[in-house]
Specification:
Layout (H helix, E strand, L loop, with lengths): L23 H17 L4 H7 L5 H10 L17 H14 L1 H21 L2 H12 L5 E4 L15 E4 L5 E11 L6 E8 L2 E8 L5 E2 L14 E11 L4 E6 L2 H35 L1 E2 L2 E2 L4 H29 L5 H26 L10 H13 L4 H13 L6
Parallel strand pairs: 1-4
Antiparallel strand pairs: 2-3, 3-7, 4-5, 5-8, 6-7, 9-10
Helix pairs in contact: 1-4, 4-5, 4-7, 5-6, 5-7, 7-8, 7-9, 7-10, 8-9, 9-10, 9-11
Cofactor: FAD
Protein name: Glutaryl-CoA dehydrogenase
EC number: 1.3.8.6
């Protein structure tokens, strides 16, 4: 009788052996981004979060460009051309540091750069994408408005043709990541032809981006309003390949995919903090990690964390194969962000009062995820996307 093969050792950091699914190139990308975040973000993030600032954001953007993290899944124009799984792994590592850092990268690459790459003219691509890939120019994405978040079809921002073919834009956008530090904005507006996207240099007369303060979430992130008062643009500022909501919604689907991975990074960071705390914190004469109720919490957290990573990996492989549907992205965002918040909240209970301190990452991740839960599609919107896909009936209206 043949001897049974020797089983690999159980790895508490990878209990399902998910790393076995990754190629050496995938691991190299993950390790590069993890090392960068450990060096450039983790030593400072608590102070940045407490002060509500992201100092040196332009330098950080250039560094992220230097490691190929900006627009990394796009081809050409100085972009890395990485796989969807590699981009997802990068998002996970960035959000394990802080959701605000992942948002910087996600908005730059999956929204602003993706819109220009997918729907722009060759001239627009050549003008903007190489500099954005290198972090020399930061981009933002103007879709959400003060009164129109989940219902972008009724946006009020408008663009009208003027004499000579110029476009004149008027309107307001709200909750725009990177807005006040951006050199270019992709702005969506109503036109006589339907909703169109425009490439707007932020030094255009009439454009301003006042920063939004007094946030209790995503504090280490630049969030702004975009104000467009008779912003005049040349005829070729419009994205030629996008008419209607198909354009902005496809950009959002690409960005939501990154959130599926990124939310698991925040969850992992909080879970790891809870495990280490449970092994060292003593009550009633022994480490609290030795009590059954604490172990039950840790086991449940580990199950949801690694199920979420498996789901993200599966969706990444589908994206790489050209088979990922928007409904499947909604499935991933709905599940993973909800579970990530629950993991953070459970981790907080293990840390007790220490869980609210910025000495630990748990409360910071939990409050960040409250924003991630609702931006780029609220829970309700993703439930309705899946509900329509399951029943064939539209319940949005």
């Amino acid at each position: 009788m043949a001897a049974s093969p020797k089983l690999p050792a159980f790895d508490p950091a990878d209990p399902l052996g998910i790393d076995d699914l990754l190629e050496p190139e995938d691991l190299a990308v993950r390790d590069t981004v993890r090392s960068w975040a450990a060096d450039r973000v983790l030593p400072h993030i608590a102070d940045w979060y407490e002060s509500g600032e992201l100092p040196g954001i332009r330098e950080l953007a250039r560094e992220l460009g230097g490691i190929g993290a900006l627009g990394m899944s796009l081809e050409g124009y100085g972009c890395a051309g990485a796989s969807a799984v590699q981009y997802g792994l990068a998002c996970l590592e960035l959000e394990a540091a802080d959701s605000g850092i992942r948002s910087l990268v996600s908005v730059q690459g999956s929204l602003a750069m993706y819109a220009i790459h997918r729907f722009g003219s060759e001239g627009q691509r050549q003008e903007w994408l190489p500099r954005m890939a290198g972090g020399e120019v930061i981009g933002c994405f103007g879709l959400t408005e003060p009164d129109h978040g989940s219902d972008p079809a009724n946006m009020r921002t408008n663009a009208k043709r003027d004499t000579g073919g110029d476009w004149v834009l008027n309107g307001r956008k709200m909750w725009i990541t990177n807005g006040s530090v951006a050199g270019v904005a992709v702005v969506w507006a109503q036109t006589e032809e339907g909703i169109r996207g425009f490439v707007v240099p932020t030094d255009s007369p009439g454009f301003s981006a006042p920063e939004i303060k007094h946030k209790w979430s995503l504090r280490a992130s630049v969030t702004s309003e975009l104000v467009l008062d008779d912003v005049r643009l040349p005829a070729d500022a419009v994205l030629p390949e996008a008419t209607g909501l198909r354009g902005p919604l496809s950009c959002l689907s690409h960005a939501r995919y990154g959130i599926v991975w990124g939310s698991m990074g925040a969850a992992r960071s909080s879970f790891e903090a809870a495990v280490e705390y449970a092994k060292s914190r003593e009550q009633f004469g022994r480490a609290i990690g030795g009590f059954q109720l604490t172990q039950a919490k840790l086991a449940d957290m580990a199950v949801e964390l690694h199920k979420g990573i498996l789901l993200a990996h599966h969706l990444g492989r589908r994206m790489d194969a050209g088979r990922l549907r928007p409904e499947q992205v909604s499935f991933g965002k709905l599940n993973n962000v909800r579970e990530a918040i629950d993991i953070c909240r459970t981790a907080r209970t293990i840390l007790g009062a220490n869980g609210i301190s910025l000495e630990y990452p748990v409360m910071r991740h939990a409050t960040n995820l409250e924003s991630v839960l609702t931006y780029e599609g609220t829970v309700e919107m993703h439930q309705l996307v899946l509900g329509k896909a399951l029943t064939g009936l539209d319940a949005f209206r």
